[in-house]
Write a structure and sequence with these properties.
heterotrimer; A mainly alpha (220); B mainly alpha (639); C mainly alpha (306); A: 220 residues; mainly alpha; 7 helices; globular; C: 306 residues; 13 helices; 1% strand
Chain lengths: 220, 639, 306
């Protein structure tokens, strides 16, 4: 069990790598879903005994993060023709540098925090890495679908962190996070649908048009 | 010891003698032979002093002891100096032959002897005033030597930058020396160790040439004549390292921040130096940047030594110090060899630009062979001496990787391995650009190998490189056992010696394999015929020498990856037709530090300083006013 | 007894080296639905080539003529340093993996020079790409060696291999699996396999190693090909020693485990070749940098833990 959970954490870290370096939104959705499924399996593998409610909860998370969200996002992508990033802000080698930087920062943070963790010591850096990867996805991408995926990855990281740190009442915390994600994706999905209807594509650069022109007085 | 002093004085006297001789036609040969004999004498004295036991006795005369050092450090650097000087002296006999009739070489030889004298004297002086005197003498004589071809514009620019670097370095050194001399102005313990360390690092760094203080190197080396660039790169740069080592030996205890500074500066110099050298179009500039890279490796080893010392691993720290010194020794040997070969090519083909040369191996086979040895040594490949120093660095890093504070070893290993791979690429590029394929330029069909005066020292250096590479235990023991005889009994020394001997065993296995395969091939191919044909080239059929991959194309994948302004400095052709008649490509690698930092800074300082030019009004009455004001201020201060 | 074991090892290495690429070819064929060549086919090819005469290009010099035996000599010298099964190689000392890495680097240097010596644009292209890959591949090797050295506390290849054991795996599973991943990618890069180079095609866009030996013929070509097989063996034994560390002290069972590790590595390489396409040449540095970051992560995992 212990070894399987260590490999799961490794797989989560690898998903971060692919998330940071890929430009195709389909791939992003795929890896975010994979990461969600892996983080759902983590508390199962690390627990000493299998409780029925734990298994049920994990199954529901897998259904939500692994099937429902990707389905919704894929429909959005196809509708808005948002298959890949239009602007390559940074090259492939630079994405690896960003990845290593995120890795070092999360390891350093986890050393500084020095939390008491049950049995797996690598879960804290992995969750920080996922949180930062999600943040970087939101900041560095222009496609709104990529930004939604970034938000999902961020929540993945928080979920991971929660399952590591909260010993009592873990299910409560996890359920709260899950509700948070569900509502957020719902709202963001609707927003992207409307943006797409207005501009015929879901590039967030379009929102630059809503900016005030410099030199013009604002109408009050 | 007394021989060394005698040699010094003789050099000094010969320099002035040269000024008064009329220009004979034989002056070149006479001078080179004298220089060679003197430096050979110094070499023997030094080597004998280094190898024999208990040799660093203080001098009988107390006067000499007060002002001169004769310890291990001076002996070691004097040894390297004499090796370089003897090789370059003999080489000059052949190299300057072309200019013998054309212009007088008196001034050249005056400066040459002066340079030699000042380097030796600086290496043995204990007194800071004497040291600065000899340091400035070295700067001034080498400046004139660099400006031998002063009618060319780029030589003048190179001389100017060189002079600025020298002047800045000397000023900082004077300031640093004032902090750590005793009442007799001898070097002694200081009360501000960190300040002294960083100031001497910058001051000596301007001479050693690590990044970011390296800007004069790529200008001065191509501008100077071949034998002078060999001497400069082989020895003068090491004077900077000598200064840093001498300072470190006087300041104790060492601090960790010093070690980290030197390690990071060394890693930057090593990696950036070789990256810059990849994009160069001219041979000597390439070799200058390669010197920057090797200085970086020397500094990496030195930084490792300091860090290990601070963490308490004294034995490993000494081995790291030996690695640094060993690389200094090896570098001076193969860099001299490379610059001498460059001089030979410049003399025969009168150009050193890669695009204009090509296919020289058929016409200059000896030079090609010796250059191959130099290039393999410079890439740090086994069987040649560049590898032995790097082996020691790796050994120290891997032994200290398990320590708690062992993160510095990771830096060292990654930098050295990256530069090793990049050096391999760059030397493969220049060797194939210069020597492989057919003769590219028809003007070069009458070039031939250089004269024996030039080939002999090159051959000697190549032989030493091969020997030190094949049996690294030999120079390791000879050079370093006199550092501290008690250390030779320690476990680290014994294990390192054992591992060096094992590398020699592997080389033996390698050579046996090579002979086996070679003879196997010979026997098998006796029954079958071996023909000569044209290059297949995927069926193209007419192999032109210009179809060979040029130097720029060879290094293009790597330089493209590391360049940050690819669009601005390269112009690609736009090919719009199916059978294009001709196309033009140009690429340029700029000297990043010079163009982005030093030149704009110099411009701004000049502009700001010119605002004060009103002080120099040209009228005598204002100058008298200034004198009066100064006297008044002094009077008020004293009252 | 020891000398007989070492002699046996060297014999096995030199005689079995061409089987591993044969296994890869067979796996690729099976994936494609074909019967494929037999795994012993490369022996017949080498035999055919050795007995042929050689043709040298007229513009080439002595480097081209001396390249083939030298390249093979360097590769063979590194191969005898590699440990075999649970035994040490012919020579084992602290820092011997440096000799392995740098002997192979020297053989690469000579290969590049001999390719440029033919004054052919194709070979020059392959030479320049080979130089570029080496720049990114060397730090991967050294980083993995650093991590292995830190885990096992040893500085020679034999020492490292002998300290690897299933217990070490249980304690350090993530680190060792990451190292295996990066060393496997390094294996694919150094032996010029997909996704870095396609050893089957002879088109200019996919050749890196094959194109550098385009003008070698006859015995020379046999030497060069054999050297590339030995190189594959060397890097595959790194992977094999990590994934199947030795169990007992009995020579024959250790050797059997080691060779089955080599077999699995070859099969894995064959599967990778069948699944993946060659990566775009401009993306190869990124791929190698990914391998580098894997080994950096492994090192940090190890360093923070202990």
């Amino acid at each position: 069990m212990h070894i399987i959970s260590q490999f799961l954490i490794l797989a989560v870290i690898f998903c971060d790598f692919f998330l940071l370096s890929s430009y195709s939104t389909f791939e992003l959705v795929k890896f975010a879903a994979l990461q969600g499924v892996l983080t759902a399996l983590l508390p199962l593998m690390a627990a000493e005994h299998f409780a029925a409610e734990g298994i049920a909860f994990a199954l529901s998370v897998i259904l939500l993060k692994g099937f429902f969200f990707p389905f919704v996002l894929r429909k959005l992508i196809v509708k808005n023709n948002a298959y890949e990033e239009k602007k390559r802000e940074y090259s492939g080698a630079l994405s690896i540098a960003v990845y290593l930087f995120v890795f070092f920062v999360s390891v350093w943070l986890s050393i500084k925090l020095d939390l008491e963790v049950k049995s797996l010591s690598w879960i804290i850096p992995a969750s920080f890495m996922t949180i930062f990867s999600g943040l970087f996805l939101i900041i560095l991408r222009t496609q709104t679908v990529s930004q939604i995926v970034g938000y999902m990855v961020l929540e993945n990281g928080i979920y991971c962190f929660g399952s590591a740190v909260f010993v009592q009442q873990p299910l409560m915390v996890e359920a709260a996070i899950l509700l948070d994600i569900f509502v957020a994706v719902f709202v963001m999905g609707m927003a992207v649908f409307h943006i797409g209807k207005e501009f015929n594509n879901s590039d967030s650069e379009n929102l630059n048009e809503l900016r005030e022109e410099t030199g013009q007085e604002a109408d009050i | 010891m007394i021989i060394i002093l005698l040699v010094c004085v003789l050099f000094l006297s010969f320099s002035f003698l040269n000024l008064f001789l009329s220009s004979y036609s034989n002056i070149n040969k006479i001078n080179s032979f004298f220089s060679f004999l003197l430096s050979a004498a110094g070499l023997f004295a030094c080597a004998a002093g280094l190898i024999s036991q208990g040799s660093f006795l203080p001098f009988k005369s107390q006067f000499i002891n007060n002002y001169f050092y004769f310890d291990y450090l001076s002996h070691f650097f004097l040894l390297i100096f004499y090796i370089s000087l003897s090789a370059v002296s003999l080489y000059s006999a052949g190299y300057l032959k072309k200019t013998e009739g054309k212009k007088s070489l008196n001034f050249f030889w005056f400066n040459f002897y002066l340079l030699a004298f000042s380097m030796q004297a600086a290496l043995i002086s204990k007194n800071s005033v004497l040291f600065i005197l000899f340091w400035e003498l070295m700067a001034f004589s080498s400046f004139f030597l660099v400006m031998t071809d002063f009618h060319k514009k780029e030589v003048r620019k190179a001389g100017f930058i060189y002079m600025c670097a020298n002047g800045a370095g000397a000023l900082i050194l004077i300031a640093a020396f004032s902090l750590y001399s005793d009442s007799y102005y001898n070097f002694s313990v200081s009360s501000y160790p960190s300040a002294v360390f960083f100031m001497t690092l910058i001051g000596f760094g301007l001479k050693a040439g690590f990044i970011p203080l390296h800007i004069w190197l790529p200008e001065a080396h191509p501008a100077a004549p071949g034998n002078i660039s060999a001497l400069m790169s082989g020895m003068m740069i090491k004077m900077g390292i000598y200064g840093i080592l001498r300072t470190l030996s006087l300041l104790s205890p060492w601090k960790e921040s010093w070690g980290w500074t030197i390690l990071i500066l060394g890693s930057l110099s090593a990696v950036l130096g070789i990256i810059f050298s990849l994009g160069q179009k001219e041979l000597k500039k390439f070799l200058a940047y390669s010197s920057v890279e090797n200085i970086g490796i020397i500094l990496i080893a030195l930084g490792l030594a300091i860090l290990l010392n601070c963490n308490g691993y004294y034995e490993l720290s000494v081995i790291a110090l030996f690695a640094s010194l060993f690389h200094i020794f090896n570098h001076s040997i193969f860099k001299n060899l490379l610059f001498m070969s460059a001089g030979a090519i410049a003399q025969s083909a009168s150009t050193l630009i890669f695009e204009e040369l090509g296919g020289l191996s058929k016409k200059m086979p000896y030079t090609a062979f010796l250059f191959f040895i130099g290039a393999s040594a410079a890439s740090g490949l086994p069987l040649f001496n560049g590898f032995a120093g790097e082996f020691l660095i790796y050994y120290v890093s891997f032994s200290s990787i398990g320590f708690k504070s062992g993160t510095f070893s990771v830096f060292a290993v990654l930098s050295v391995s990256l530069t090793g791979a990049l050096a391999l690429a760059s030397f493969a590029k220049i060797f194939s650009a210069l020597f492989h394929g057919g003769l590219k330029n028809e003007n070069h069909s009458d070039i031939k190998d250089p004269s024996l005066y030039m080939l002999l020292p090159m051959g000697f250096l190549a032989f030493m490189s091969l020997l030190a590479g094949l049996i690294p235990y030999l120079p390791f023991k000879l050079l370093f056992s006199s550092f501290n005889f008690a250390f030779t009994q320690s476990s680290q020394w014994i294990s390192v010696s054992k591992y060096l001997l094992m590398t020699t065993c592997s080389y033996c296995a390698l050579i046996m394999f090579f002979l086996a395969f070679y003879y196997m091939r010979k026997r098998i191919s006796k029954e079958n015929e071996t023909k000569e044909g044209i290059t297949w080239d995927c069926g193209y059929g007419t192999s032109l020498p210009s179809a060979k991959y040029s130097a720029a194309s060879f290094s293009q994948p790597i330089t493209e990856f590391f360049s940050f302004d690819g669009q601005r400095s390269r112009s690609y052709p736009k090919i719009l037709e199916y059978f294009p008649k001709s196309a033009f490509y140009s690429g340029n690698t700029r000297a990043v530090f010079y163009e982005l930092f030093y030149a704009p800074a110099a411009k701004k300082i000049k502009k700001a300083a010119s605002r004060l030019s009103f002080i120099q009004s040209g009228q005598l009455r204002f100058y008298i006013l200034y004198i009066f004001l100064t006297l008044a201020a002094l009077l008020i201060w004293k009252i | 007894m020891e000398n007989i074991k070492i002699f046996f090892q060297i014999l096995v290495i030199f005689s079995l080296a061409p089987i591993l690429p044969g296994i890869i070819n067979r796996v690729k064929a099976k994936f494609a639905g074909r019967q494929g060549r037999s795994i012993f086919q490369l022996y017949f090819d080498l035999y055919k080539l050795i007995n042929r005469g050689m043709v040298y290009p007229k513009v080439s010099g002595i480097i081209f003529k001396m390249a083939a035996p030298s390249v093979l000599a360097f590769t063979a010298a590194s191969a005898v340093i590699m440990p075999f099964g649970g035994q040490s190689g012919l020579l084992s000392f602290s820092g011997d993996f440096l000799l392995i890495a740098y002997f192979l680097a020297f053989s690469r240097f000579l290969l590049i020079l001999s390719a440029m010596d033919t004054s052919s644009a194709f070979e020059g292209m392959g030479a320049s790409r080979e130089a570029q890959f080496a720049v990114f591949a060397e730090p991967v090797f050294f980083m993995s060696m650093l991590t292995l050295s830190r885990i096992t506390g040893e500085t020679s290849v034999y020492g490292i291999f002998s300290k690897l054991s299933p217990d070490l795996w249980i304690q350090n599973a993530p680190v060792l699996s990451l190292i295996t991943g990066s060393l496997f990618i390094l294996l694919l890069c150094e032996s010029s396999r997909v996704p870095f180079d396609d050893p089957d095609t002879h088109l200019e866009l996919t050749m890196i190693h094959e194109v550098m030996i385009l003008d070698n013929s006859g015995t020379d070509l046999a030497f060069m090909l054999y050297a590339s097989y030995l190189k594959f063996w060397i890097y595959a034994s790194f992977v094999s020693a990590i994934i199947l560390p030795r169990h007992s002290d009995f020579f024959f069972s250790d050797s059997f485990i080691y060779m089955s590790g080599l077999f699995f590595t070859s099969v894995a390489a064959g599967v990778t070749e069948s699944i993946m396409a060659r990566v775009r040449l401009l993306r190869v540095p990124q791929f190698l940098l990914a391998a580098f970051s894997i080994s950096v992560m492994a090192f940090v995992f190890q360093a923070v833990k202990g």
